[in-house]
Write a structure and sequence with these properties.
Layout (H helix, E strand, L loop, with lengths): L9 E3 L3 H14 L8 E7 H5 L6 H8 L4 E7 L10 E8 L2 E12 L2 E3 L16 H10 L4 H8 L4 H19 L16 H8 L4 H21 L3 E3 L9 H12 L4 H21 L4 H4 L5 H15 L4 H13 L17 H21 L10 H14 L12 H4 L2
Parallel strand pairs: 2-3
Antiparallel strand pairs: 1-7, 2-4, 4-5, 5-6
């Protein structure tokens, strides 16, 4: 597996695979290209079907601002190697001088060859069972394991990640008005936060987590800079969880940074053995994985055992199995914003299960089992339910 840094990437919303990935592809393609070139970009599959709502064409145009460029949407080509495929062609005097195909495989990562995905492999163990056994044999914690494998700058990297996550909440919690796009959806994070102050303690926590998650995702839907956690579409869940722990439980930043290491380990296992792309496996791979990661972080913060951490992450992910990716009109607004709030609460409940139920009996379902189930489930989903805006809510709400 790659570094967990590859899960926590900072970039423009609203979609890691539809915005950050294509922006990287555009930056790569124009390297060494003559300024008088005309560039034609064609978006296929999910990138074509939801590209307008995800601002894919806008971000590419922004990168190609110094070139004569055209963005085409191909809605008809089937049998793609990957649902997030885009091609770049550069012309001079009517002749093609450069031609390149990219695949945006999730979490902001792009590749040009699906059989040879670039990236430094720093984790040689690819299942939680193997990691758990290694840690037990060497008398080390999950955080120790991550520290052993990552470069020495991992703490400073994750501190910047944490600060950016908190900035996402702070910069959007007081904003009002409409989120950009034809849905004309109003921002409500500020109102939820203010109303939460009037509630009982139990209800207040639920609504505060909701407000913090909404804040991040409303910003993401507006094209703000966010952290993929593990994607832009699920960028509100981990920040909401950690923001609450920091501001309302007085958990120190060092502990939160270490909790991101644990969360990243679980996210990495999902990425390695299944996917974190909604276009590949549905929203279970985005919101489900993010909720599992947030649960793992929360369990670590509260000093639960390795088994309890696994239990909590497994519970969170298991009960998002089969969740479809059905963004209305291609925007990461309905159902994505509300879904992040629900997933933040699911993380809190899954932590409580890990704390109070895990000690009662050994769980028969391992985290590795549920990751395998997510992959099988996602691959069997009809393609309409994988970030196409064709099925589910997207077909009913206009």
């Amino acid at each position: 597996m790659e570094s967990i840094k590859e899960l926590f990437i900072t970039g423009p919303g609203p979609s890691s695979s539809h915005t950050i990935g294509p922006s990287k592809a555009a930056k790569d393609f124009i390297i060494g290209l003559p300024k008088d070139s005309k560039i034609v970009v064609t978006l296929f599959g999910s990138l074509a079907l939801t590209g307008k709502g995800h601002l894919t064409d806008k971000i590419i145009k922004d990168i190609l601002i110094n070139f004569d460029s055209e963005i085409l949407f191909d809605f008809t080509t089937k049998d793609l190697k990957h649902p997030n495929t885009l091609t770049f062609k550069a012309y001079q005097n009517g002749n093609i001088i450069k031609d390149k195909t990219y695949y945006s495989i999730g979490g902001g990562k792009i590749v040009t060859d699906l059989n040879h995905i670039d990236g430094e492999i720093i984790y040689d163990l690819n299942t939680f069972e193997e990691i758990k056994e290694y840690c037990s044999r060497n008398k080390m914690s999950l955080v120790d394991y991550v520290n052993q494998k990552e470069n020495k700058d991992i703490d400073s990297y994750l501190e910047n990640v944490l600060d950016t996550m908190f900035k996402e909440v702070d910069s959007n919690i007081n904003k009002e008005g409409l989120i950009p796009g034809s849905l004309r959806l109003s921002r409500v994070a500020k109102t939820i936060f203010n109303e939460a102050q009037k509630l009982s303690d139990d209800e207040k926590k639920v609504m505060l987590l909701t407000a913090f998650a909404y804040s991040c995702v409303e910003g993401n839907a507006s094209g703000d800079i966010v952290v993929t956690a593990p994607t832009c579409g699920s960028c509100g869940i981990i920040p909401a969880t950690l923001y609450y722990e920091y501001h309302y439980k007085n958990i120190d930043k060092k502990t939160l940074i270490d909790s991101l290491k644990v969360a990243g380990l679980f996210g990495n296992l999902c990425k390695e053995n299944a996917s974190i792309s909604g276009a590949m496996l549905g929203c279970q791979a985005e919101v489900g994985v993010a909720s599992a990661m947030a649960t793992a972080a929360l369990c670590y913060i509260n000093k639960l055992s390795t088994y309890q951490i696994e239990y909590g992450a497994e519970v969170a992910l298991e009960h998002f199995l089969g969740l479809t990716c059905d963004p209305v009109d291609g925007y990461v607004q309905i159902p994505c914003i509300e879904r992040n709030g629900i997933a933040a609460m699911r993380a809190d409940v899954s932590y409580l299960y890990a704390k109070n139920i895990a000690p009662l009996r050994k769980n028969r379902v391992s985290f590795d089992d549920v990751v395998k189930a997510m992959k099988v489930t996602g691959e069997s989903l009809n393609s309409d339910y994988k970030e196409t805006s064709i099925g589910g809510l997207a077909s009913l709400i206009r």
